[in-house]
Every structure is written in structure tokens, then in C-alpha cells.
């Protein structure tokens, strides 16, 4: 076959001409072999990332920092003036630092690339005459794609079917109103693409209805690809944490530069060589200024994101990782999240009969029309093996009808579908029209209140006549539906109406879905997910309030919430109708007591989110439909369903659940808390070490001591301590009771909880130990005094990083092997420091000398001081917490005793 030329007038061609040009078939599509060949010809259906940073770009960014450039210039000047050895050593350490920074960048890039791969979605196509699901990246010109409400249009396509299809093209045109789509060719070949109503373009969203299209362009050949090619590369928006750290870094940089300038001036005035003090002050500034802090935190966030992905939570926005630790409310859908979304019909109520199980109903003549309607008013599809697939409710109805002898495919041969009103969450019902003897029949199904209110009669016991008296029994029928719901069943009502002629397609559904005859009620059971009950209990112990939001009957919702343990004393269930009747003030007064919202419209979700947020809570909200998108965007964490969710919902969300499981949200919150804890540990570790270096260099002249560290020592310590051990803190496991503490207050500062004070005293303590060893070594005439001070500072930071792994637990309780990467990095750092002491080449390069056994023993012993001090601090913190807990328990017991006495 010849290559397919891409043309711009697809909209002006008929469907038949289109199929001939693309050598495809509107019914059967392409076969798999031809699709594979075209994929090789046209390439993947992806928008290329323009101006990607290559290896050279990632290396270059390591040398853009002003202080690095100043240090390199100073080292070169030192070499020119004769101190070639120190100059080369400093340059080598700077290059090694750049290599570490580059490796971190590569890790972050790979992590993000993996996340993009996970985020890729699948699409439904017709290939070889069968419906199948393929990755959107594998679409090729000529493919037949099925479009459904809530889905993203995966490629540019000419529509060949459009059933009440409307597409939101705001991403391309800026117009918010959905565009109604048609199939007929358009006469004007030069029509602007915004007016091409028989085309659907990549990146737009299906707002309503469904349709089929033939792909005409993929990847960079699409309209979206053309626009992307014109765009400049926009830098990513920093997360709030990154922005705060950047501001903090700038402020700290100014302070450190002033201090380093003072060190330079005071050193020169004390008689030290100008070049030595310039190198020392510059090296200290490079080592202490936390310019890499936002970048390292980004790497830690990216590592956390990868771990979340392994736990079936895909992070779409990096800021979500920070926010997870502050979530205090989780508003979750019931179906598929708290339950398995594996519906099965267990009970029927045929009008004119009583409630009966599905097996009895199959033998009941009065239920025949109910089963027939359930089979025909159904959007179930078939996989390549011919098995039913699609919405679990539709599949359950299909299987129940099939088991009762009403095969949908056989029925559709004599009663083909001619028209439909698709289900939407506002109407809470759907209607299909079928050709029948003497005219047409319309079947409607939906929520009982949405169907029964439109019925004027109901089928009688003999099924041959409509019982006119039944038109006045709506309350009784709703009571039956309520009783079924109280048993935990999801209830649907099914009705019919005959028509002598098909209503006009442009007729509004509200005008057509009237005067119905009720056929009966269907009750379905959706089992609770394994682990959902435990996840709810974990939420409660973590200070997180789980709230169920469902379209089910309030009685159904109450029954399931009770089994999950979501309702406590004083908690209530609220219906969407009750919510609509409340003022904002009334809603604010009761919102914290409502744990279940039932029969809720998706549009009401945003009101719930805002009411909860008004009380100062951070809200995670789940959703899967088009109408859920505003609430997902308004919530602090929007959580979309990865399996059942629409592309619109996923685009509006911060987090996507790959398994649609409520327990995964709870696991993500736990992981978010762990990640934030570890970022705090890294900051504490890095800034405490930096503070120690500053204290040492500043205090030595004041105490009458010579310069304790050489520039190479400062850079070496910075290379060792800010490298592997710091990043290894990202792998620190969660604290055992991390989900037994309340959420982190959203406005709590990064340095709250005494962190600033800890950094200052820990840095000062390390510095005093180093200076004490220096003073002892000088007074004892130890020639290697400078190597000792250098080693004590390096060893101290290794002991310190082991001690701060937990804010309360002792290292003896944690064990060394619970964080293998950290243990390995500490051992490697210790080995490198021993090499710096005893390796002749490193002695020459770093200006060190071998230590005697006594000197090494003193250095190691002194290095344990900071470790022991931090362990002592944790001991006091633990016991203070125990005493506070005992006082709280005693207070609660006294209050209970007082209440008992009053009773």
C-alpha cells in the first residue's frame, strides 16, 4: 500500500470518500497488521516535548550558580599565582559535585518520564471488526475510534457517527461552550477548523453523547501538534515548598555572604594570606549556601512520587505530595472506591407482584418485560471474546436478563435501537427507542424517584394492561424502593412507553420521557472492597474524617456506611435535596457532622468542598465523571479514578488512583506524610552541618585559634555529607505511628516544632566539639591537629545523620538495617574519610596527614558527642510525650467519672 498523504480538507469529504482515501473500513476498521505497519510509517501518536534538556543542558546547569563560578575563578587565579595543587584539588571537587548534581537531575528526569508513561491512557477502537482497547500512542490514520462522554479525543478524526455528541474545544479555540457535532460533509473546503463541526480534534473533551470517528492525523500532525510546535518551552511551576525554600535560600545566602566577607576581612587582618582567605571564604560560602536545597527537595519529591506510583497512586502535580500530609477530610465516591463495583442483580420487584429474588423472577411471567427492558435499555459492549464489558451496572443488568432467557443480541435483531437519550447525572436516567410491532417502544431506566415521578401507570399483575389506579401509588412504590435500599441494595426503576412514530431527534428529553408505564424495580448488590473497613479505621486514628458521597438512595448509603464504620454518634446522612435547601450558614453549622451525602448531583460536590474548607480543613475529593471536574479542581487534592474515571476528571485531578481503591488514598496520605517528614529531616541535617562549619570558622579566630580548616577540607566535607547520606534520608521508612497522629496544619511552617532551635544548637554543639579537639591537639603539640579537626567535623555529621532518622525513637529501637541506603552511604563516607586520612595521594591533595591510633580514637570519640546529645534530646521528648498522654488520659477518665456521677 502507498503512503497516506495528509490533507486539510477532511471535513469536506464524505465518509465513503474518506474511507477510500485512508484505505479503511467504517465498520471493521484496520486489521492489526496494517495498524502496525502504519505505526512504523507515521510514528507514535504523541506530542513531542520541544526543547528538552539534553545531557549538555543538565551538565551546564550545574555551573550556573554564581558562587561556583567565583570559586572556580578564585581557584584558577590561585593556580596562576603558584598554588597549583590546591587549585587543581578545588576544581576536581567542584567537578565531582557537578557530577553528583547531574546524576540527581538524571534520576529526576527518569522518574518523571516513568510517570508520563504511567499516565498514558487507553482508547477503544474497532480493529479487525472487533472492539478492543489500545494505548492512545498506537493510534494511526484509518483507525476507527469510539468516543464517549468524559473521554479525551485522542487524535484528529473525521466523525462517522454522532449521537447527541458535543465536544468541548476550549483547549484549542478558547470557547467554553461545547460544540454540537454532526456527520454530514461541509461544503466550504476553506472552513476554519473551529467551524468544522464534523471533526473532533486531539486534546478536546467529549462533554456529552457518544460517537465514532476515523483517525485522519496523529501526533505532531494534529492541530494540537501544530500549536505545540509554535510554543516556547515554559518552565515548570515550582511547588509551594520549593518556592518557600527558594525564598529562604535567598535570605540565607545574603546572611552567609556577609558572614563570609567578615571572615575574609578578619582573616586577612590577622595576618593570613589574602589568597588563602579568599579561597576559604569562597569555599565556605559554596559549602554553606543551600542553593541546591530546592533541587534536592525536587529529587526527593520525585523519588516519593515513584514510590506512590508503586502503591497505585499516580501523582499528576508535584505539589500534591506536599499537600497529602495536611489532608484532614477525604470525600470519596462509594461505587468502585469503597465497594468493588462488581454489581450483580439479586432482587426484583415486578409491578403487580412482590419482592422476589432473581431466580424466582426468571420464572415469573410478570417479570418478562422487566428483563426485556433491562437487556435493551443497556449500553453494554462486547470484548474480542464476545463477553459483556462496560459499566458494571449495565453488565449486571445484561447478565441477569441473559440468565432469564432474554438475550440482548437476539432481541436487537427484531427490536433495533433507533434513538436514545444518554444517561446524565442531572436527569438520573437514560432512555432508548426501539422499533416494535405497530410503531416504537421507549424503555427508560434510572433512579426510582427520577423514573416514578414520570410514570402515570404501572404494569399490572397480568402484564396485559396498565392498572390505572396505580398512578396514585407513587409514595407506596418509593417506599418499596426505600425498603430495598435499607437492605444495602442499589435500586433502579425501569419503565416503558409506546410510540406510533419516532419523536424528532431535536425533541428535549423532558418532553419525551413522560407518561411512562412502570415495569418494576431492580435491586443490585455491590460488595464492599477488602481492606476498605480497615482503611476507614486508619483514617479515624489519623485524625482524618472520611465522608461518603454517592448517587445511591440515602438508605442504601446509610447501610453501607454503617458496615464500613463511617457513622458515629451524632453523625448524619444528608440527601442532595436536603443540601440544596440549606443556606450557606446552615451548611457551615452542620457540615462537620455529615458523614454521608446521598442522591447527590456532582455539581453539589463543589459546595461540600468549599463548606469543609471554610472550617480550615484540607480536603481530598474523589471523582470520575465530567461533572466532577470543578470539585476536583477546587479540592486541595483532587483524586481521579484511573480505571473508571474519564479523561476530564483525570486532567482536573492532582492524584489518580490506578486501582480505584479507597485504601490507596489512605496509603497515599501515609506516603505523603512520610515524604514530608523526610524532607524535614534532610533540611535539618543539611542546615545543621552548614551551621557547624560556619560556627567553626567564625569562632576559631575569636578564641585565638588558627584557621581550623583548609578550603579543600570544607569542599570535601560538603561533597561527602551533602551527597549520599542526605539523599539516603529520602528512603527512611515511615514512623510506626505516623497514621496515629493528626494531620499537619496546612499553615504550619517548614521549621516549626522547634526545628530552628535544633539546627542552631546542634550546629553549635558540633562546632564546640571540633574547636575543643583543635585546642587539645594544639596544646598537646599534635602535628596533625588540622586533620583531626577536619575528621571530627566529618565523623560528627555521620553520627548526626543516624541520630536524626527519627524525632523520637532511639537508633537502638530503629536498628541500623531499617534504612539500608543510609547505612551504606554512611559506611562509604566513613571509608572515604579514612582514605583522606591515610591515603598518600589524598594526603597530598587535601593537605592531610595520617593520624596516630590515639589521635584517631580521640577524633572518633569526640564525634560521638553530637550523636549522644541528639539521642538524649529524643529521650526527653519521648518521656514528655508519655507524661502528656497520661495527663490527657487521666483528664478523660475524670470527666467520664463526673458524667457517671451526674447520671
Note down, in words, how this protein is organized.
Strand 1 and strand 2 form a beta hairpin. By secondary structure, the protein is α+β, with helices and mostly antiparallel strands. The protein contains 34 helices and 26 strands. Helix content is 50%, strand content 17%. The strands form 4 sheets. Strands 10, 11, 14, 15, 16, 17, 18, 19 and 20 form a 9-stranded mixed β-sheet that branches. Strands 8-26-25-24-9-21-23-22 form an 8-stranded mixed β-sheet, with helices on both faces. The radius of gyration is 35 Å and the shape is elongated. The chain has 4 domains: 1-235, Calcium-transporting ATPase, cytoplasmic transduction domain A; 313-339 and 529-660, HAD superfamily/HAD-like (Rossmann fold, 3-Layer(aba) Sandwich), CATH 3.40.50; 349-519, Calcium-transporting ATPase, cytoplasmic domain N; 673-734 and 751-888, Calcium-transporting ATPase, transmembrane domain, CATH 1.20.1110.10.
Under CATH, the homologous superfamily of the largest domain reads Calcium-transporting ATPase, cytoplasmic transduction domain A
CATH topology of the largest domain: Calcium-transporting ATPase, cytoplasmic transduction domain A
Q: What would you say the CATH architecture of the largest domain is?
A: Distorted Sandwich
Number of separate strands: 26
Low-confidence stretches: 231-235, 461-472
Q: In percent, how much strand structure appears in the residues?
A: 15-25%
Specify the helix fraction band: 40-55%
Amino acid at each position: 500500500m502507498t503512503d497516506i498523504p495528509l490533507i486539510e480538507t477532511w471535513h469536506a469529504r464524505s465518509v465513503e470518500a474518506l474511507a477510500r482515501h485512508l484505505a479503511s473500513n467504517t465498520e471493521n476498521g484496520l486489521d492489526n497488521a496494517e495498524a502496525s505497519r502504519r505505526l512504523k510509517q507515521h510514528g507514535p501518536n504523541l506530542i513531542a516535548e520541544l526543547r528538552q534538556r539534553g545531557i549538555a543542558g543538565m551538565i551546564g546547569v550545574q555551573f550556573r550558580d554564581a558562587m561556583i563560578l567565583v570559586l572556580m575563578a578564585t581557584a584558577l587565579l590561585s593556580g596562576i599565582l603558584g598554588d597549583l595543587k590546591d587549585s587543581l584539588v578545588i576544581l576536581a571537587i567542584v567537578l565531582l559535585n557537578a557530577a553528583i548534581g547531574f546524576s540527581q537531575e538524571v534520576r529526576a528526569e527518569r522518574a518523571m518520564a516513568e510517570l508520563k508513561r504511567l499516565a498514558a491512557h487507553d482508547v477503544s477502537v474497532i480493529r479487525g471488526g472487533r472492539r478492543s482497547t489500545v494505548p492512545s500512542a498506537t493510534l494511526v490514520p484509518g483507525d476507527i475510534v469510539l468516543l464517549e462522554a468524559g473521554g479525551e479525543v485522542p487524535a484528529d478524526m473525521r466523525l462517522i457517527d454522532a449521537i447527541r455528541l458535543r465536544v468541548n474545544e476550549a483547549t484549542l479555540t478558547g470557547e467554553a461552550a461545547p460544540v454540537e457535532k454532526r456527520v454530514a460533509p461541509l461544503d466550504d473546503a476553506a472552513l476554519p477548523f473551529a467551524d468544522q463541526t464534523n471533526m473532533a480534534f486531539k486534546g478536546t473533551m467529549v462533554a456529552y453523547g457518544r460517537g465514532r470517528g476515523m483517525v485522519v492525523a496523529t501526533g505532531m500532525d494534529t492541530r494540537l501538534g501544530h500549536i505545540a510546535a509554535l510554543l516556547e518551552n515554559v518552565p515548570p511551576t515550582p511547588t509551594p515548598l520549593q518556592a518557600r525554600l527558594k525564598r529562604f535560600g535567598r535570605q540565607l545566602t545574603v546572611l552567609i555572604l556577609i558572614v563570609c566577607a567578615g571572615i575574609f576581612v578578619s582573616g586577612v587582618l590577622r595576618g593570613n594570606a589574602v589568597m588563602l582567605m579568599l579561597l576559604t571564604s569562597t569555599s565556605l560560602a559554596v559549602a554553606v549556601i543551600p542553593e541546591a536545597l530546592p533541587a534536592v527537595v525536587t529529587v526527593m519529591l520525585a523519588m516519593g512520587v515513584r514510590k506512590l506510583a508503586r502503591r497505585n497512586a499516580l501523582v499528576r502535580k508535584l505539589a500534591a505530595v506536599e499537600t497529602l500530609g495536611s489532608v484532614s477530610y477525604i470525600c470519596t465516591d462509594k461505587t468502585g472506591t469503597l465497594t468493588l463495583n462488581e454489581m450483580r442483580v439479586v432482587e426484583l420487584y415486578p409491578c403487580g407482584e412482590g419482592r422476589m429474588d432473581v431466580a424466582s423472577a426468571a420464572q415469573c411471567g410478570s417479570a418478562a418485560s422487566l428483563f426485556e427492558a433491562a437487556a435493551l435499555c443497556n449500553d453494554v459492549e462486547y470484548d474480542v471474546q464476545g463477553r459483556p464489558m462496560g459499566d458494571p451496572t449495565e453488565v449486571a443488568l445484561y447478565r441477569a436478563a441473559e440468565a432469564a432467557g432474554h438475550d440482548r443480541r437476539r432481541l436487537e435483531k427484531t427490536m433495533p435501537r433507533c434513538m436514545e437519550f444518554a444517561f446524565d447525572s442531572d436527569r438520573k436516567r437514560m432512555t432508548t427507542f426501539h422499533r416494535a410491532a405497530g410503531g416504537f417502544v421507549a424503555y427508560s431506566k434510572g433512579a426510582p424517584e427520577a423514573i416514578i415521578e414520570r410514570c402515570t401507570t404501572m404494569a399490572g399483575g397480568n402484564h396485559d394492561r396498565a392498572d390505572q389506579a396505580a398512578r396514585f401509588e407513587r409514595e407506596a412504590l418509593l417506599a418499596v424502593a426505600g425498603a430495598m435500599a435499607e437492605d444495602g441494595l442499589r435500586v433502579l426503576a425501569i419503565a416503558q412507553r409506546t410510540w406510533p412514530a419516532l419523536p424528532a431527534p431535536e425533541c428535549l428529553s423532558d418532553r419525551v420521557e413522560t407518561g411512562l408505564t412502570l415495569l418494576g424495580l431492580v435491586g443490585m448488590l455491590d460488595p464492599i472492597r477488602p481492606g476498605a473497613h480497615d482503611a476507614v479505621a486508619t483514617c479515624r486514628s489519623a485524625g482524618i474524617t472520611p465522608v461518603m458521597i454517592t448517587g445511591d438512595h440515602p438508605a442504601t448509603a446509610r447501610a453501607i456506611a454503617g458496615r464500613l464504620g463511617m457513622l458515629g454518634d451524632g453523625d448524619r446522612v444528608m440527601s442532595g435535596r436536603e443540601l440544596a435547601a440549606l443556606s450557606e450558614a446552615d451548611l457551615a453549622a452542620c457540615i462537620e457532622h455529615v458523614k454521608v451525602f446521598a442522591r447527590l448531583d456532582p455539581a453539589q460536590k463543589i459546595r461540600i468542598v468549599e463548606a469543609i474548607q471554610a472550617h480550615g480543613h484540607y480536603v481530598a475529593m474523589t471523582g470520575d465523571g465530567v461533572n466532577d471536574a470543578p470539585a476536583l479542581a477546587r479540592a486541595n487534592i483532587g483524586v481521579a479514578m484511573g480505571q473508571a474515571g474519564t479523561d476530564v476528571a483525570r486532567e482536573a485531578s492532582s492524584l489518580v488512583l490506578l486501582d480505584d481503591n479507597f485504601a490507596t488514598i489512605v496509603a497515599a496520605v501515609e506516603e505523603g506524610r512520610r515524604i514530608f517528614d523526610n524532607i524535614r529531616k534532610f533540611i535539618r541535617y543539611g542546615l545543621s552541618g552548614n551551621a557547624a562549619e560556619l560556627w567553626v570558622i567564625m569562632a576559631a579566630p575569636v578564641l585565638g585559634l588558627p584557621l581550623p580548616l583548609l578550603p579543600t577540607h570544607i569542599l570535601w566535607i560538603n561533597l561527602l555529607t551533602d551527597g549520599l547520606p542526605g539523599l539516603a534520608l529520602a528512603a527512611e521508612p515511615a514512623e510506626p505511628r505516623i497514621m496515629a497522629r493528626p494531620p499537619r496544619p496546612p499553615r504550619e511552617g517548614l521549621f516549626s516544632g522547634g526545628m530552628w532551635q535544633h539546627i542552631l544548637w546542634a550546629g553549635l554543639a558540633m562546632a564546640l566539639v571540633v574547636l575543643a579537639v583543635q585546642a587539645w591537639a594544639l596544646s598537646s603539640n599534635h602535628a596533625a591537629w588540622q586533620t583531626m579537626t577536619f575528621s571530627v567535623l566529618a565523623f560528627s555529621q555521620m553520627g548526626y545523620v543516624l541520630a536524626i532518622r527519627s524525632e523520637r525513637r532511639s537508633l537502638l529501637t530503629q536498628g541500623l538495617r531499617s534504612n539500608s541506603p543510609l547505612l551504606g552511604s554512611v559506611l562509604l563516607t566513613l571509608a572515604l574519610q579514612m582514605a583522606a586520612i591515610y591515603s598518600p595521594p589524598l594526603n597530598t591533595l587535601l593537605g592531610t596527614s595520617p593520624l596516630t591510633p590515639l589521635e584517631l580514637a580521640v577524633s572518633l570519640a569526640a564525634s560521638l558527642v553530637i550523636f549522644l546529645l541528639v539521642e538524649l534530646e529524643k529521650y526527653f521528648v519521648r518521656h514528655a510525650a508519655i507524661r502528656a498522654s497520661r495527663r490527657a488520659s487521666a483528664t478523660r477518665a475524670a470527666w467520664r467519672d463526673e458524667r457517671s456521677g451526674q447520671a
